[in-house]
Amino acid sequence: xxxxxxxxxxxxxxxxxxxxxxxxxxxxxxxxxxxxxxxxxxxxxxxxxxxxxxxxxxxxxxxxxxxxxxxxxxxxxxxxxxxxxxxxxxxxxxxxxxxxxxxxxxxxxxxxxxxxxxxxxxxxxxxxxxxxxxxxxxxxxxxxxxxxxxxxxxxxxxxxxxxxxxxxxxxxxxxxxxxxxxxxxxxxxxxxxxxxxxxxxxxxxxxxxxxxxxxxxxxxxxxxxxxxxxxxxxxxxxxxxxxxxxxxxxxxxxxxxxxxxxxxxxxxxxxxxxxxxxxxxxxxxxxxxxxxxxxxxxxxxxxxxxxxxxxxxxxxxxxxxxxx
Amino acid sequence: xxxxxxxxxxxxxxxxxxxxxxxxxxxxxxxxxxxxxxxxxxxxxxxxxxxxxxxxxxxxxxxxxxxxxxxxxxxxxxxxxxxxxxxxxxxxxxxxxxxxxxxxxxxxxxxxxxxxxxxxxxxxxxxxxxxxxxxxxxxxxxxxxxxxxxxxxxxxxxxxxxxxxxxxxxxxxxxxxxxxxxxxxxxxxxxxxxxxxxxxxxxxxxxxxxxxxxxxxxxxxxxxxxxxxxxxxxxxxxxxxxxxxxxxxxxxxxxxxxxxxxxxxxxxxxxxxxxxxxxxxxxxxxxxxxxxxxxxxxxxxxxxxxxxxxxxxxxxxxxxxxxxxxxxxxxxxxxxxxxxxxxxxxxxxxxxxxxxxxxxxxxxxxxxxxxxxxxxxxxxxxxxxxxxxxxxxxxxxxxxxxxxxxxxxxxxxxxxxxxxxxxxxxxxxxxxxxxxxxxxxxxxxxxxxxxxxxxxxxxxxxxxxxxxxxxxxxxxxxxxxxxxxxxxxxxxxxxxxxxxxxxxxxxxxxxxxxxxx
Lengths: 324, 517
Prior knowledge:
The structure holds 2 protein chains of 2 kinds. By secondary structure, chain A is mainly alpha-helical. Helices cover 69% and strands 1% of the residues of chain A. In chain A, strands 1-2 form a two-stranded antiparallel sheet. Chain A is globular and about 65 Å long. Chain B is of the alpha/beta class. Chain B has 3 domains: 13-247, P-loop containing nucleotide triphosphate hydrolases (Rossmann fold, 3-Layer(aba) Sandwich), CATH 3.40.50; 265-346 and 432-512, Rossmann fold (3-Layer(aba) Sandwich), CATH 3.40.50.300; 354-430, no CATH class. The longest helix of chain B has 19 residues, at 120-138.
């Protein structure tokens, strides 16, 4: 195999790995925001999920128990957000920020109390996390030119949660655009009064929306600490929740464009360290820090309206008040 | 007999209310309301703004639970906890503000809540077929795959009616349905409503326009301050009696101004063309002339360039093409003027949206009364509460602003009194030109009288007035000349004397141009 091809495959493989949590979080944000609830708390749910997964996997030795804990932790934070924003019509940004701060502090405090390890959890053994899975026939097909290596290197050999991430995109699309639930959920995010007047409960729809968001963030959290990584490190979400939010806006709240935005951000994240010290003709050494800033810079430029408009759901962030 | 709604046979009543009460905070919106609406009738509910009509409709539709009293639908007691309960009993509602999702298609809006299965694909063909047959039956044609955002208001209203009928509504409530329609569209709506009645349906029409009640309703109930004050057969009453019931006292018919001594031109605009940032043409080559002591009214369906015209003339938007000549100044793209400069030249502006542009709602009345005119707020750069108070108190007396509390936040006044605060501020500067946007929208009849009298008084003092209104009655009552605007272009300017609603209506929809050319 030519050297360049191997490099390309390695970069794409890395992209898939780094994009997976972004995709899960962005899909979580998509479902929540399409229902009209701003989800700036993606970061907090991701972090809480990551910690719960690692802690429970350490204590029980089972990655599945870890995954369950991650889902539960993330859903709990989602419900706190929902209680504040849906039941009590609170300010959604403030509530989301509170969720983030809560997760940031609680994970370290509980980790210290449980493991006395400086806010980390002990490293997980191979049986305690989700390992890469070889897809059927990957070894047999490896020798087939191009497609074979593509299948064996890129498609095969990821852990379960990476596949879950890529599967979440068509699932979310199907749920929101092909089902009764989706139609109502999107209507709740655009014009909740219409939903109410049709005799359907807006709060119930929005609660279901943030519940799904909680589950998806839980998957992402488990991915960070017991699939991609092998244990919880303090602040290990490192802004991925916010990056997912940027991808959500960049993809204009539509599943496929959001997926591409996540992949683009994942790609930038993968190539940034590889470009360390590389000299480009005319440019000189690549400014790696600048590459890391690109996703956010691009989102700001998009929001400023340079390439078309990113129109959010019309009722986004607006509490639904029945009596006016 | 006809005077007593309660005397009808119970089996004939589609809706029957007994002692219905609803309180919002300190306000008793509905106070022991009794009402019988006969099956197969078009029944009007009239009253001023804030009389409790919309609250009553919301109770019948299950949006609000009454605090007391009983609701019966088709002779059966109905405890309506949500619109779903009302829909199940055959009640449908067309809201004043459309309950449509703008980013959805007509079909998606209609199927919302009635999807016919977990998967949207399951019920779609069936829904499409039923929608088509309903459209044909009631003359409500609309493209099911059109995006609601792209539809004009008249068609959006059809979608709302279809939505209700699709849900099996036999009792259809319409809340102020004609506010956004041209006279022509209104006539078509009434034809549709009569058709629904003839097919055995019951229509409840909530409105403050007496002429519409007389035109389409068989029976009418009048509300005032949360109470039912009368039930009438329209055949046995007239608008004067209904108006008196609504207001609670005799209402003077505004006498049409007998011509005007057209004064000298004060403000001229020529070739005003304005495009939105998106490039859409909002105003096309508008010429106009405002003369001292004369009212020029701009008639048109809302959204046809009136707001843009006001913004340009007041200096809020910069002139792109064309020019404005006012008080010896020429304003065009190269020589812009700010709103402050325009004010200094003698222009006053009553914005269309008083709550967003005319007032700062959390500010006190006295602070609102000096907005934009800092010389009234106190010496030099300072503001003085006493100075503002001294400025505001005479205004409150002159414009009969109630309650007469200069320190009450603007938000605490009713719509009509909020409007009076804006008018008082603008009229007080003795302007040479007044731009008057929707002066009586959402204002009760009693206050409309006061406002109209003040406008006429200002005109008598030689002010040139540009009146923008979507109410043809108001235009016909006040204007000397009427400029009809359609799609941002002037469809024609006619003297108010001798102008008819029909003629203006045709011009507003652009039909007159085609027919007359």
